[in-house]
Design goal:
Layout lengths: L4 H20 L9 H9 L9 H21 L9 H21 L9 H30 L2
Keywords: Membrane, Transmembrane, Transmembrane helix
Protein name: DUF3995 domain-containing protein
InterPro entries: DUF3995
Length: about 140
């Protein structure tokens, strides 16, 4: 299960979230307008969308994390030295866990819509994804 289900779930979810970021770089879908989007997704009231370039890069990083997961799991052909892939996998784990656990501090001063979703979805999801990343990294380290 560790070699099959865990990495696949992690890669699929990271890819889906990355694709959402690509969409958000150019649109406020699935929200009805930019104000609703920024209150719900970004936690601000101003209706000013985050810069498209940054949003696109976040999407690229998430999809890169998915590809890295599959390379570390040996589901995709590997690029680069094994130790670097492992460092990258542990780095992905740390980033996701920091976002997940530190995300609760983001609620202070944020829009109520964001606070609610961050508390029940965004931060817990990041903790789960970070934990899955840790499982993949540890399993790869033991091979």
């Amino acid at each position: 299960m560790v070699r099959t289900l865990v990495p696949m779930v992690l890669a699929i979810v990271l890819t889906a979230i990355g694709l959402l970021h690509f969409i958000w770089a150019f649109s406020y879908w699935p929200m009805k307008d930019a104000i609703t989007f920024t209150k719900t997704i970004a936690g601000t009231y101003d209706g000013k969308m985050p810069p498209a370039s940054i949003t696109f890069l976040v999407g690229l990083a998430l999809i890169g994390g998915a590809v890295l997961t599959l390379m570390v799991n040996e589901s995709l052909p590997a690029i680069g030295p094994e130790w670097l892939r492992l460092v990258g996998m542990y780095g992905l784990m740390v980033v996701l866990l920091v976002r997940g656990l530190g995300g609760y501090f983001m609620n202070s001063g944020a829009a109520v819509e964001f606070q609610q979703l961050n508390t029940v979805l965004y931060s817990p999801l990041c903790v789960v994804l970070g934990s899955l990343g840790g499982i993949v990294a540890v399993a790869a380290s033991r091979r």
